[in-house]
TrEMBL record:
InterPro entries: DNA_Partitioning_ATPase, P-loop_NTPase. It comes from Haloplanus vescus. This is CobQ/CobB/MinD/ParA nucleotide binding domain-containing protein. PANTHER family: COBYRINIC ACID AC-DIAMIDE SYNTHASE, P-LOOP CONTAINING NUCLEOSIDE TRIPHOSPHATE HYDROLASE.
Amino acid sequence: MSDAADGTAALVGATGGAGTTRLTVELGTLLANDGRDVCILDAAFATQGLADYLSGRLDPDLTALLTDDADAPLSDGVVDFSLDSDGGRLACCPAAAPFERLARAKSPAAAQAFESRVATAATTFDHVLVDTPPVAANQAVAAVNATDRTVLVAPAATRGRDAVQRLSDRLADLDVDIDGVVSTRGELAVADAAVPETDADVTAAPTCLADSSMATAVATVADIAVDATPATEDGRGLLDSVGDLVSG
């Protein structure tokens, strides 16, 4: 486990269907609501789930910024997530592309471009979160190499526990430290934090500002992922202020 305190993090699904995209959106929302500027980059090219949380024009998407529009500024592909607060900014750069471009966006050259996009975002935003699939393609390797922290996300089930072990071995081969494990939909013995199950679908997300148990869990993830325990205006930390977020 690393003890670095930095502002960029790859949230890596240990297996498919772990709820990594949802957790990344919830985490970004809580941090932005606390007054921070947050950018989410989408490395989950196969599922393109981040795009489901956004509306409006998604062109150029992140894969285009890594290939055909490699010289365009990151801001061209960023879509702001609407928040019902006067806090910080939550900006998202999703993958929303045809298969042909998805394939090209997985090349070694595109992976290098991905790392550069993370570095660029880090100069503009307080935090950069990367929605990352199980590490089995170049863009996922780029995500864990380019970020300060790596957090594994696994479902609270036997398949989740086994996937954490497999992915831990793979990341060790890449010389990447794991800074924490988060279980979704319940408790997992190997996890450092657990996010409760929710019946809310994509259209209802995020829920962390209206659900106290979700807010508390996501605040714990914030501490693991980006060492976020910022003081609010009254001097209290993020974990202390969660109750205000859900009761105001």
